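Is this the right way to post structure tokens for a design question? Let me know if I should format differently. Anyway, here goes:
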């Protein structure tokens, strides 16, 4: 493990995927705290605070025990948002990020996951570091640690694409009573991501339905259309190649998104399985015997009580995403067929145009043949070899004309036949005897 830690630290030190500018900026944060019961027996209170922290104060913010006041806490959860700039680069300097992760006690091996923009669910525990978890998806990644001595969870929410920190905070706040267990981020991440998937799937389903209506294929096809019809619908005939290409691209993108969501769903299952396993195990993340450990176990039980409902939702979505993926694949095949049909129609049009050109050339040839005898005799009669007013109309040297014209004409026809035969030999389907193709 030491070798892996050294490699991860070395890679992080040489990584360039962070903001180059050293000017500190403000980062949005979420802080949830549960105040301890006072000696008078006052009921504890949960506080949710949304604020911003300067980049230069991140390390002190991560290690501070107090929030907006100095009230003792039974548990505290802090989460900071790091957005991204161009080329998916985190909008934070490397020095500030390293200072923050050192203050959090992040296991160094987890830094490799951040730099390489890994997906999946990973957990790390080793001497000299806090218990560390990493969750990565196509939209965002979360890196968080738990300090049993402070009973405090500190995490970093790193945006990738289409992430919604506010929505994640809303989901996490719904489980604010369970922040005694850092595994609350397991369940919150899965639910938040599933909400995003539901929104995206609903939008993509609308795209598929519109394309099905236009093509006449699928559950949303035009009413009354049957596949056994020998003629396509009017809409299919009017669809041009550019429009079909756009539809094909949209369907292909939806198919890729379905595969990506299936991949992320497998991560959800592993994360929820880890949550159930943590409840069954005797490990308590280093918490001492007493009220803190009991609250940790109680929070785990409450989180696991939600698992059956969440898992049924995930199972339903898994089945639907497989159906939607199969639907897009079949629709993609239909679009390919329609593209082939449109291309064939374009080929037929070109063939018709070529036929018309051939007919025009034939007309020109016929007209040439009609005028050629008259042209020939006009030229012949105009030659000085003929004496129309003399006693002998054909002069004695007329044979020179015939002696030159006939051989040259025969030579031209011979050359033409030779060229035609050579093209037939090299380009024909058959080969003369003795000619071998490589």
């Amino acid at each position: 493990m030491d070798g892996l830690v050294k490699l991860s630290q070395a890679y992080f030190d040489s990584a360039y995927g962070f903001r180059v500018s050293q000017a500190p900026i403000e980062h949005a944060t979420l802080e949830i705290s549960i105040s301890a019961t006072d000696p008078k027996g006052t009921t504890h209170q949960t506080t949710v605070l949304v604020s911003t922290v300067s980049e230069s104060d991140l390390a002190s913010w991560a290690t501070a025990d107090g929030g907006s006041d100095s009230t003792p806490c039974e548990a505290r959860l802090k989460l900071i948002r790091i957005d991204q700039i161009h080329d998916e680069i985190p909008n934070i300097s490397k020095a500030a990020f390293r200072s923050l992760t050192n203050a959090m006690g992040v296991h160094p091996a987890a830094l490799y996951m951040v730099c390489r923009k890994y997906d999946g669910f990973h957990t790390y525990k080793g001497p000299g570091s806090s218990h560390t978890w990493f969750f990565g998806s196509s939209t965002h990644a979360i890196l968080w640690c738990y300090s049993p001595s402070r009973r405090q969870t500190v995490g970093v929410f790193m945006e990738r694409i289409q992430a919604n920190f506010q929505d994640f905070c809303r989901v996490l706040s719904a489980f604010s009573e369970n922040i005694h267990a850092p595994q609350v981020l397991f369940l919150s991440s899965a639910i938040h991501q599933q909400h995003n998937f539901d929104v995206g799937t609903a939008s993509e389903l609308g795209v598929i339905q519109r394309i099905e209506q236009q093509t006449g294929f699928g559950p949303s096809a035009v009413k009354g259309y049957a596949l056994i019809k020998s003629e396509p619908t009017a809409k299919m005939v009017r669809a041009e190649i550019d429009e079909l290409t756009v539809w094909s691209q949209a369907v292909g993108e939806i198919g890729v998104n379905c595969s990506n969501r299936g991949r992320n769903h497998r991560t959800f299952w592993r994360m929820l399985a880890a949550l159930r396993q943590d409840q069954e195990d005797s490990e308590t993340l280093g918490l001492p015997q007493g009220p803190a450990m009991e609250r940790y176990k109680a929070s785990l039980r409450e989180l696991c009580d939600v698992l059956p409902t969440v898992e049924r939702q995930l199972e339903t979505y898994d089945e639907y995403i497989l159906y939607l993926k199969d639907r897009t694949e079949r629709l993609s095949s239909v679009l390919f067929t329609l593209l082939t049909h449109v291309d064939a129609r374009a080929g037929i049009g070109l063939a018709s145009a070529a036929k018309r050109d051939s007919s025009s050339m034939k007309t020109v040839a016929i007209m040439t043949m009609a005028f050629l005898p008259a042209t020939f005799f006009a030229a012949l009669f105009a030659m000085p070899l003929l004496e129309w007013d003399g006693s002998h109309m054909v002069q004695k040297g007329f044979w020179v004309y015939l002696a030159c014209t006939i051989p040259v004409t025969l030579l031209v026809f011979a050359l033409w036949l030779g060229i035609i035969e050579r093209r037939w030999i090299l380009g024909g389907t058959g080969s003369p005897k003795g000619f071998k193709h490589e």
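Format looks fine. Someone answered above. Worth noting: The chain has three domains: 1-179, 183-373, 383-419. Residues 183-373 form one domain.
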